[in-house]
Amino acid sequence: MKQELSDFMFRGLLAKHSLRDMEAVGQLRPASRNAEEMQDVDMLAPVPEAIRASSVYMQRCYRLLFILENLVRQFVQDVLEEKDGTDWFNKRANNDVKKKVAGRKSQEEKNQWHSGRNTHPINYIDFGDLALLIQTHWAEFKDLIPTQAWAVSRLNDAERSRNVIAHTNVLSDEEVTRLEMTLNDWIKQIG
């Protein structure tokens, strides 16, 4: 009787995990979904399983990147704004970055049918420009970040992952771990 109970429990656990895995890749619709989630499941049902599964996997990667990038943008903005006020961008950004921002804002004005970015210039610069701002204005950051190399190496690694994510490719587990560690480092350092 004891062995039968153990076997029954083990089969139940296997079934539970199988159901969870089928839900994760869109093969099965869980009962607890809201109408919007059910609509997505139905819409994506004809999509190959590998693509659906990859999208679920990459949702978390995008979220990690989104948090890291916006955390760094906010950090750079806060530090430089504390020193120079709200006009810090005009005082601190080099001409190439200013031209890039102007060009992107101009494109948004031409395409008003599409929602734009947050209006602050820091939201128009490339991710790599954040590391450049930190390096160029190191005196403002040196008491908050261990070394320039620390910041630049982490941001460069994150930018490589960002490019994979932005071009809708799948990050390897190793790179996801690296992204998690980078985000964790930034949170501990500046959080």
List keywords for this structure.
single chain; 2 domains; 74% helix; 191 residues; elongated; mainly alpha; 9 helices
SS field, number of helical segments: 9
Give a short account of the largest sheet: none
- Distance separating the two termini: 55 Å
Number of domains: 2
Tally of strands: 0
Which outline best applies? elongated
What portion of residues is helical? Answer: over 70%
Average pLDDT, to the nearest integer? Answer: 88
The radius of gyration over CA amounts to 23 Å
Which structural class do the helices and strands define?
mainly alpha
In words, what does this structure look like?
With 191 residues, this protein is mainly alpha-helical. The chain folds into 2 domains: 1-46, no CATH class; 54-190, no CATH class. The protein contains 9 helices and no strands. Helix 6 (127-136) packs antiparallel against helix 8 and helix 8 packs across helix 9. It starts with a helix and ends with a helix.
Brief characterization of the structure:
The chain has 191 residues and is an all-alpha fold.
